[in-house]
Amino acid sequence: MEQKTLLIIKPDGVRRGLVGEVLRRIEAKGLRIVKLKMLRLRRECAERLYDIHKGKEFFEDLVSFMTSGPIVAAIVEGDNAVNVVRTLIGPTDGRKAPPGTIRGDYALSIKENIVHAADSAERAEYEISVVFSVDCSIED
Questions:
Q1: Phi/psi class of residue 78: alpha, beta or left (left: φ > 0; alpha: ψ in -120 to 50)?
Q2: Phi and psi dihedrals of 91, rounded to 5?
Q3: φ and ψ at 28, to 5 degrees?
Q4: Element (H, E) at 82
């Protein structure tokens, strides 16, 4: 089934120069990048992006981290895109992610885990609407 999902290369991935490698892996898997942008995420948008974690002990750290530098956001399309991207990136804790996954190969910690991806088609639609809205980017 053709799907659309959101993939974000987090500030640590951008800082470490891994944007090209992450995007290469997405395309090598046969998925299409249909929209791409680099931005500094506004705090309010990071809070909306991670609204499902509001109230959890790591929420503030996560929002601060996601607004600490530029991110690269991509809308990715393809057959079963949500699950394919989730498999490619590996589990959230990069220390437990298997080699060959993006997080398994590059993540330094549970926080600095290179990428974010939507976990369902419904969540992807919501997250795309947040990250690609005109008011989410801080102009440098």
A1: left
A2: -60, 155
A3: -65, -25
A4: helix 81-89
Give residue for tokens 């590996």.
90
- Which residues does residue 9 pair with via DSSP β-bridges, in sequence order? 72, 115
Q: Cβ neighbours of residue 10 under 8 Å, at least 6 residues apart?
A: 65, 66, 71, 112, 113, 114, 115, 116
Q: Provide the CATH topology of domain 2-132.
A: Alpha-Beta Plaits (3.30.70)
Q: Is 116 a catalytic residue?
A: yes
- Give the Cα separation of 12 and 66 in Å (integer): 9
Query: Which of the residues 116, 128, 130, 136 is marked catalytic?
Result: 116
CA distance 45 to 66: 10
Ranges of the chain whose pLDDT falls below 70: 139-140
Q: Tell me if the pTM is above 0.85.
A: yes
Bridge partners of 107, per DSSP, are: none
